[in-house]
């Protein structure tokens, strides 16, 4: 079953993530991390570098006319971090499988059924590359559900 993103979902994604910075980009070093309150959840249909939408075909993201869309998910966090005078403190945490694994641990510790707007991620850290070079290792201090 496919969940289509509405036009409003797309507009809100652009509004909420426009200035958000990626705390775990290419220049990330072991020990880099982020803490903050979840203020938005973004889900977008992934596109290739030419702007064509991608679909899962034979378990690979592929340009196609139909199939299950490749959806990217992000949590937008409001943080206290300010790297420069243009920084509003928003951070976009892309929910790849490695980040999900760490957040799942925090959810279990908190006995929460999932993340929620107003919840807080504390100490989501990049530990280093996974052995064998496939992926990354992250750790989390805690997840606190909203009051």
Provide a descriptive summary of the structure in words.
- This protein is an alpha+beta fold and 147 residues long.
- The chain has one domain (7-41, 75-144).
- It has two helices and nine strands, in the order H-E-E-E-E-E-E-H-E-E-E.
- It has helices spanning 7-17, 97-110; strands spanning 33-45, 54-57, 60-63, 68-69, 71-78, 90-94, 120-129, 136-139, 142-144.
- Strands 1, 5, 6, 7, 8 and 9 form a six-stranded antiparallel sheet that branches. Strands 3-2-4 form a three-stranded antiparallel sheet, with no helix packed on it.
- The longest helix is centred in the last third of the chain and has 14 residues, at 97-110.
- It starts with 6 loop residues before the first helix and ends with a strand.
- The mean pLDDT is 90.
Summary, kept brief:
By secondary structure, this protein is of the alpha+beta class. It has two helices and nine strands, in the order αββββββαβββ. The chain has one domain.
